[in-house]
Amino acid sequence: MDGLRPEKEVAASAPCRVDLGGTLDLPLFYYGLGPEKACTFNMALNLRTQVRLRPFARGRVRVVSRGFPAAEFDCGQAPYTHPLGLVFAILDAFHARDLCVEIVSESPPRSALGGSSVMAVALVALLMRLRCPDLVKAADVALCARDLESSVAGVPCGMQDHLAAAFGGIHLWEWDGGNPRSLWRKKTLVQPKGYPGMASRMLVAYGGEPHDSLDVNGRWVRGFAEGKTRAAWEDIALLTRHFAGALETGDLETAVRCMEEELEIRLRLTPDVLDRAGLCLAAAARELGCGVRFAGAGGGGCLWALGTEEAVRALRTKWQGLMQDLPGACILDAAPEKDGILFENMAS
């Protein structure tokens, strides 16, 4: 079987996201809670991850990505346990060979904005497009990327990162594990014409410390599986639905309150879900009347805040002052992103 390889340099990109109600997209949670409860909110951001493919030496594959040493192996021989193992696993799944992969992300490494999943979506989409240009569907890309990431990680992965990357936009995702033909329902909460207003009422910050979600997620999963925390997760699901409804109708006060209550539950379940920088930034947001939430599974990485335009302007100034004592911390130039997967240098 001939390998899949590009004849020239081609590229695809996908957006990262912020979220509320994450973890409910894990199969254990949405099977346990059922489709009337399990849901996740996310908002795609204009911070995109781009994947470029170009021809390379015959019989070799090379991957270059910021934050990692470049890696090169014989085709089909790369270890999936390598820090860039997911990239090599995706290449092997499509029998891609004789190429170099370059990954460029506009978000900080390990910032809890869904980076590895976004990369997986962009790379899977690109390889699907090379294989069969007319049959690339966002849903298929998301499912394939999720399955490959779960296989390499050795644990079930959620889907919200992949769906935000594939579809873009601002959505509530409702999970129905009992319906194999339609695992999720997508509800659009804000139309693109409303994105400028949303951008002026939100702020995304990187706290300076990269996140590691495995321990936090592991404790959440164990607590749910043991039956000790299910009531708390039902409350998180309910707050996520209320938040989505409030955002859809423009009820900012209710949306902020839902963010505050959801964060309080998470902090009771796992007090270390916010690191030192996160606690400092979150406290400032609350003092100014903004809702605040860590991105992804927390434990470092990014936070995002929501509030009135006046409150967000004040929070920007406050956060900038606090960041002088938080090495590596910064406010990201982030706004809602309507587009999911985008292709470059490829015929339409």
Distinctive features:
8-stranded mixed β-sheet, alpha+beta, 4-stranded antiparallel β-sheet
Regions with little confidence, pLDDT below 50 for 5+ residues: none
Please work out how many helical segments DSSP would assign.
11
SS elements, strand count: 12
Alpha-beta content class:
alpha+beta
Instruction: Compute the separation of the termini in Å.
Output: 27 Å
Sheet with the most strands, sense and barrel status: 8 strands, mixed
Q: What is the alpha-carbon Rg in Å?
A: 20 Å
Give the ordered list of helices and strands.
Answer: EHEEEHEHHHEEHEHHHHEEHEE
| Percent range of helical residues | 25-40%
Return the average pLDDT rounded to an integer.
94
**What characteristic shape results from the CA principal axes?**
globular
* Strand fraction: 15-25%
Model description:
With 348 residues, this protein is α+β, with helices and mostly antiparallel strands. The protein is built from eleven helices and twelve strands. The two termini are 27 Å apart.
List the helices and strands and how they pair.
Blueprint: E1 10-20, H1 27-33, E2 39-55, E3 60-65, E4 71-74, H2 85-93, E5 99-105, H3 115-131, H4 138-153, H5 160-167, E6 170-175, E7 184-188, H6 195-199, E8 202-206, H7 213-225, H8 230-249, H9 252-269, H10 276-287, E9 291-294, E10 302-306, H11 309-322, E11 330-332, E12 342-344
Parallel strand pairs: 3-5
Antiparallel strand pairs: 1-2, 1-12, 2-5, 2-6, 3-4, 6-7, 8-10, 8-11, 9-10
Helix pairs in contact: 2-3, 2-4, 3-4, 3-5, 4-5, 8-9, 10-11
